[in-house]
Amino acid sequence: MPDHAHNVVAARQGTEAQRAELADRIARNVPGEGVHECAVPGLALIHADAPSQPIPCVYHPSLCVVVQGRKQAMLGDDLYVYDPLHYLLVSMSVPVTGRVIEATAERPYLCLRIEIDPATVAELAPQLATPPAATPARDEGRPLHLARTEEPLLDAILRLVRLLDTPAEAGVLAPLALREIHYRVLVGELGPRLLALCQVDGASHRLARAIDLLKTHYAEPLRIDRVAAAAHMSPSTLHQRFKAATAMTPLQFQKQLRLQEARRLMLMEGVEAAAAAHRVGYESPSQFSREYRRLFGAPPRREVQAALLGRSAAG
């Protein structure tokens, strides 16, 4: 066998072994279905035993790496499918509709999510031998990006996940592994997309400031000129670029943040619908119920009852 072909086969076998080990370690470190935060800060493990219904949610700056199964995310009319061969980079907080499309009890959907740290990106960028080219504002587009998962990135991720079994070492070694993961993305094909998050004068960075304001003050009435000022844009420019990136207006985005938080309060903390609506800034319970049903497909009371029944059956 020629050397090149031999190397290709060896690399393929190496990545398959890495994915198999990652799948085993994720399965051993999650108590069941759902999203599970870890002892390693910034790392979450995700497990699903069956395909899911489309679920509206907000993705935050992160790296999503599937090791088994498949998932799709829809942003506006754009569809992104990520699997063991492709990772998803989320370069700013954005509302999407997510759905697990391949999973069984025997071969569950297994994924890990790593938070992107803009400070680490900004620190690494000047040290690169060949810095990623800046992405022109007109080309930045949507903040979801897919790329092939290469062996060096998988290797760094595997070393991070192994630290779950040695928590005494995680405090020292996890920051090093996370730094390398950021580096691997920066020197890969999505390096310019990741770098755009940290370019102070770039459109992505300015939009991120507007989104941070909406996230921090989602329960308050906000004037569009205040949001535009946070992004150092005119209201009309903000409206145009915000919609191009997120497929919604800033106020629509704020509404979705409110409804997402209300859903979390009801399902995870047992808060009643009326109280949850008030806490996220709704003055009218009927308006809350109407908008909740439009986003999630069921009125809040029915969804809470279904969740309670599910917990009773599981118990």
TrEMBL record:
<dbReference type="GO" id="GO:0003700">
    <property type="term" value="F:DNA-binding transcription factor activity"/>
</dbReference>
<dbReference type="Pfam" id="PF06719">
    <property type="entry name" value="AraC_N"/>
</dbReference>
<feature type="domain" description="HTH araC/xylS-type">
    <location>
        <begin position="208"/>
        <end position="306"/>
    </location>
</feature>
<dbReference type="GO" id="GO:0043565">
    <property type="term" value="F:sequence-specific DNA binding"/>
</dbReference>
<dbReference type="Pfam" id="PF12833">
    <property type="entry name" value="HTH_18"/>
</dbReference>
<protein>
    <submittedName>
        <fullName>AraC family transcriptional regulator</fullName>
    </submittedName>
</protein>
<dbReference type="InterPro" id="IPR009594">
    <property type="entry name" value="Tscrpt_reg_HTH_AraC_N"/>
</dbReference>
<dbReference type="InterPro" id="IPR018060">
    <property type="entry name" value="HTH_AraC"/>
</dbReference>
<keyword id="KW-0805">Transcription regulation</keyword>
<dbReference type="InterPro" id="IPR009057">
    <property type="entry name" value="Homeodomain-like_sf"/>
</dbReference>
<keyword id="KW-0804">Transcription</keyword>
